[in-house]
Amino acid sequence: KQWVYLFSAGQADGDGSMKSLLGGKGAGLSEMSLLSLPVPPGLTIPTTVCQYFNENAQQYPSTLKSQVKSGLRKVEALTSCKFGDVEKPLLFSVRSGASVSMPGMMDTVLNLGLNDETVKGLEKQTNNKYFALDSYRRFIQMFGNVVMNIDMHKFDQIFSKYDNTTKQQENLNKIIQEYKLLFKNETGIDFVQDVYKQLWYTINAVFKSWNNSRAITYRKLNNISSLLGTAVTVQSMVFGNMGESSATGVVFTRNPSTGENIFYGEYLKNAQGEDVVAGIRTPNDINKMKQDMPKMYDELLRIRNILETHFKEVQDIEFTIQQSTLYILQTRNAKRSSRASVKIAVDMVNQGIISKKEAILRIDPLSIKNLLHPTIDPNQGYHLYTKGLPASPGAAFGKICLSANKVKELHESGEKDLILCTEETSPDDIEGMHLSKGMLTKRGGMTSHAAVVARGMGTPAVTGAGDIQININEKKVIIGNKYELKEGDIITIDGSTGEVMKGQLKTIDVTFSSEFDTLMKWIDEYKRLTILTNAETPDDVLRARNFGAKGVGLCRTEHMFFHPQRLPIMRQMILANNKEIRNQALDKLLPFQIKDFEKIFEIMNGHPVTIRFLDPPLHEFLPESDEDINQVIEMSNISKDEMMIKLKNMKEVNPMLGLRGCRVSILYPEIYMMQTKAAIQAAIQCNLKLKKPVEINLMVPFISSEEEIEIIKTQITKCIENLLPDDNHQIKYQIGTMIELPRAALKANDIALHAEFFSFGTNDLTQTCFGLSRDDSSSFINHYERNGIVKQDPFVALDVDGVGELIKIAIQRGLSTRSDLKLCLCGEQGGHPDSVKFCHNVGLHAVSCSPFLVPVARIAAAQAAI
Ligand code: ADP
Ligand code: MG
Ligand code: MG
């Protein structure tokens, strides 16, 4: 069996399609080798070895070591150097990488193969003592930290004791001695001199790192569960730290923050490895290289074009220049902000690189939510503290937290607006980064850990704000020697401009870019599902319409009764002793309802509006305080004793399964009649005003039997006939029902006889299908999710297997008695891409979701149809 895949410029055993086997890095290196790009030769040990290692008590396949050895022989032949040789030592980097890139999760060891003897060979070969010693020093440090788990700070402490500007070489020798001593003290063994031992210790550590807690956390946060493991790439070293004609850097073929089609990136001269991303020195803008190293810049530009044309995707490229020779060390599809992903996809269609369909498929529907991030309202005064780099777009305000742990601590105590403010970030900070609303770092560029992670998460970030000084001990931040802030003070950051400002600034909803509008137009060419919205306030309805909703799929009328002006009247109605008093109350509510509906109809401007009759458990309206009770007593003219008995009788043990939905209407038909009247009268008004037909769907909730819908439908129809002349074609109405109880799904054939449309209320349907209370289930559902007992919270993404089955049954049975039955889904899950896909596949006509999710659902609907 093949356990080793070789690559070198011009040839490779693998290729770019073999990501799951070679990891993203290994596959990318192979593909670039096949393109004859300057890739230092090396070999990749595939993910199947990691799997073997984990399943066989950390043993390797028996032929692995011999295959690696013969692979190394070939690399030696290509480089004319020899691993462990004292004259011409070959050095390696040992790099990890799974098929999904996990920034910073697993560590790379550079300069492997150096020891007390080979370091002399390196010096002779390069005629550069400082370089050789510095490389050795770096190797001991990385090997000690990554492989032997020695705390990095202990190395840093030694390093910073020496002034490295003068007497460099002498100091380096001392540092190396101290490093070795530290190594011995920490591990109990001498620093490993045998290069093959160095190699296998390191490979071992990489495979083990697959299961370190950082990697596990990252996979968990990103829902990555299906991977075999990591691959390991052993690659010959090239050196960016060989003086002023050497450099290392990272470039993006386009701007990953804005999407602009301009070359973008950073480099550092005379530097190695992660110096650029670690944020230890703030790197130069790549444009500086045009003057600084013009030949290298041109070469890099040439490779940028080759890679982007070849992969048809924005690339994130790592390179190193060794004494004016350029090497490419990695390429991958660039992580980018949501805004950039839309712009890039649309630009690439316009450039003829990809098709419209490909462009649509490239957008992660959920990431579109990030586009709806607020920006800072320009119409206000503000006080600018400082400016850093605009690393991840969006504006955020919150309390300054000086560590990821502080974020966690405050978050647990219920604080949500938190800004993580640190010198730089590391993979250990991931959780705190996740919980913060924004990030601010002193060091690090646009490609630093903080920037990359923030863009991935869609969290606003400002990096490289060199003006700030963080004093951890005194829990203070000093900005530009002018302002002194304490941990817990509030600041606002703007990740689109890099600005850091005083206090909490007002923010506004974003306006969409022209590329976004273009993309959304293309989407409408492909999608079949109609996207509606769940909304009842004018603000929400308007927002949803601006986001492209083609109607209201669920207008929850009960929300209209919790208004302080209306609640007492509502109470009077519920607690009324007789029909007369109830009707008096309803008469008072009618004008409110008419106004409410009129506004919604007007905003929807001819698009259909689905009005759901009053649904909630009545107890939600009952008065509790003495004051409220007395108010109702006064209004409804009954004695206190009577009232108290009434209240007691209305108490339910299980209100969510009690007197709610259509059951209320069966007992007190007047309520739905009032709402019907309001809807029709509002429609008439609106029709007069807009001179356009108005389309309403009247929806009866919580039906479980044919009889219920039959009775209610007859009442509604009669009521409408009294209000509308037969020949009115301006007001179109349909009467339908929600399917939110398992019995309704099963009896759908009978129910459809009386319902012109179904809307699947998947919140209640999930609740009643599982026997789960959605208000209390989070405690154990989280546990279920963590332990893989459920894949996802069924209230977030529809449970296709169970609840989905009920939906399929209802569709099939409903259509069997009414072939033109209209079908919609209006649960919370309607905005989840997976659920939208399900709706498309089972043949629903529409999905209704909350306003902010309308664009998400539209994209998901188009993707499902492609
Ligand atoms: P990551 O997964 O964190 O991106 P990499 O394996 O890409 O880790 O290594 C990090 C950095 O180490 C690279 O960006 C590059 O600068 C340096 N590096 C890796 N391999 C080599 C090599 N063969 N020669 C020189 N530098 C290397
Ligand atoms: Mg790394
Ligand atoms: Mg890398």
Question: Would you give an account of this structure?
Answer:
The protein has 33 helices and 34 strands. It has 866 residues and is an alpha/beta fold. The protein folds into four domains: 188 residues, ATP-grasp fold, A domain (Dna Ligase, domain 1); 87 residues, 2-Layer Sandwich (D-amino Acid Aminotransferase, Chain A, domain 1); 135 residues, Phosphohistidine domain (Glucose Oxidase, domain 1), CATH 3.50.30; 339 residues, TIM Barrel (Alpha-Beta Barrel). α17 links the parallel β19 and β20. α5 runs parallel beside α7, α20 packs across α22 and α32 packs across α33. The model has no long low-confidence stretch (mean pLDDT 91). The structure holds adenosine-5'-diphosphate and magnesium ion (2 copies). One magnesium ion (MG) binds next to loops.
What's this model, at a glance?
By secondary structure, this protein is an alpha/beta fold. The site of one magnesium ion has 2 residues, from loops.
Largest sheet: 8 strands, mixed
The distinct bound ligands, ions and cofactors come out as: adenosine-5'-diphosphate, magnesium ion
What's the pLDDT, averaged over the residues? 91
Number of helices: 33
Q: In the CATH scheme, what's the topology name of the largest domain?
A: TIM Barrel
Give the end-to-end Cα distance, rounded to a whole number of Å.
39 Å
In terms of structural class, how would the helical and strand content be classed? alpha/beta
Question: Which architecture of the largest domain would the CATH scheme give at its second level?
Answer: Alpha-Beta Barrel
Strand content: 15-25%
* Radius of gyration computed on alpha carbons: 33 Å
**Overall outline:** elongated
How many domains make up the 3D coordinates? 4
CATH homolog superfamily of the largest domain: Phosphoenolpyruvate-binding domains
DSSP summary, beta strand count = 34
CATH class of the largest domain, anyone? Alpha Beta
Describe the strand arrangement of the main beta sheet, using strand numbers: 15-25-24-17-18-19-20-16
- Residues in helix, %: 40-55%
* Unreliable segments of 5+ consecutive residues: none
